[in-house]
Design goal:
Blueprint: H1 3-18, H2 23-28, H3 41-45, H4 68-76, E1 83-86, E2 89-92
Antiparallel strand pairs: 1-2
Length: about 100
Amino acid sequence: MRDEQANTVANNFKTLIGTDTNATANAVITADEVDYSDSVIPLMDSTCPPVGSPLPFVALGTATFDSRSKFEAGQAAQRNITYALLCDTVEITYVKILGL
């Protein structure tokens, strides 16, 4: 991947998780996209489960989102994530505030 391609991917990701709109998702994610992210699943599972629901809600190693629409719904249900591009390094910081 060339530098400009990597920069495009990083900026698209920044927009995907940093704003609450579907415009970028519709532009850069295919409708049948499947996303695997074991770093996101514990954040998703840290909320209070519905009565009778087993934990984890989503098992590690399984699809976090199995379609673009599920990614969009998941992203809309959370606060925007601060994301900074620093030269040739990508830094992502997740902060989970329980009860919010």
